[in-house]
Design goal:
Blueprint: E1 5-20, H1 22-28, E2 34-35, E3 37-38, E4 41-56, E5 65-80, E6 83-95, H2 98-103, E7 113-120, E8 125-132, E9 138-145, H3 158-165, E10 170-174, E11 180-188, E12 194-203, E13 217-239
Parallel strand pairs: 6-7, 6-10
Antiparallel strand pairs: 1-4, 1-13, 2-5, 3-4, 4-5, 5-6, 7-8, 8-9, 9-12, 10-11, 11-13, 12-13
């Protein structure tokens, strides 16, 4: 049985965002999802999150475990019998925590691959390298808090970017079972993002030209959140159809 609610502190959450060709991305998404667009671009990326004090909500003391985690995600929309929805589709989750790896998909939603994280908080920024144990995924991000987004971003302002990402609290991630997606909803006590000036960025997922031919997935911007109390709520599983792409 899955725990209904977990809570703790988001010590650091970095959203590394890519603008992606919407037609290409649509072919890679399982129905019922379709890309959520902004100024004509689909938006994908990596959520790099350090969680602390994670514990069941019914435990009154603010104790618990900490972990470094990465989720490759796509901003999506979909519709069902209850109406329209928005959130994120998560094709890959990785974690530095054996607890998350063991319990993910069992005690709480989301199956996690094991990964090694090397993280230097770097004052008001971040210097992070992640490599999955299976060798399938690597991520490199180095940056510092800034005053504005890059001029090439599809978002005209930090507020515009914040408004785009805040509603995407419901995530569905792939599992070992074909077409079954685990759902989880993030509830934050306060939402505040800051722009992150990126000096180095690399993603084996979005840089893979077999998946995204040259020019179809480009780094757009990065945002950082810090010291946010939060809760994770399990959501009903969703059963997706096969993708249109091979």
């Amino acid at each position: 049985m899955r725990l209904p609610i977990l809570e703790g502190v988001i010590r650091r959450r970095v959203l590394v965002n890519y603008r992606v060709d919407p037609e290409l991305l649509a072919r890679q998404l399982p129905p019922p999802f379709r890309p959520k667009l902004h100024n004509g671009a689909a938006v994908g990326g990596i959520c790099l999150i350090r969680l602390e004090q994670i514990h069941p909500a019914f435990v009154p003391l603010r104790i618990g475990f900490a972990s470094e985690n990465a989720a490759h995600r796509i901003a999506v929309l979909w519709r069902d019998e209850r109406g329209p929805h928005e959130g994120v589709f998560i094709p890959r989750r990785d974690t530095g925590s054996f607890v998350n790896h063991l319990a993910g998909g069992r005690l709480f939603p989301g199956e996690h691959h094991r990964a090694t994280f090397a993280v230097d908080p770097a004052g008001d920024g971040i210097d992070l390298h992640m490599r999955s144990r299976d060798g399938a995924v690597t991520v490199r991000v180095k940056g510092r808090v800034a005053n504005a987004l890059p001029p090439h971003s599809v978002f005209a302002s930090v507020t515009e970017a914040s408004d785009f990402f805040e509603p995407g609290a419901l995530g569905y991630s792939v599992t070992r079972e074909p077409h079954r997606l685990h759902g989880i909803r993030l509830e934050t006590q306060g939402w505040h993002v800051e722009p992150l000036h990126v000096d180095e960025v690399a993603s084996s997922y979005f840089d893979d030209t077999a998946r995204f031919p040259t020019g179809t997935a480009l780094f757009d911007c990065a945002l950082i959140m810090r010291n946010i109390r939060h809760r994770w709520h399990a959501a009903d599983d969703l059963y997706a159809l096969p993708t249109c792409a091979a």
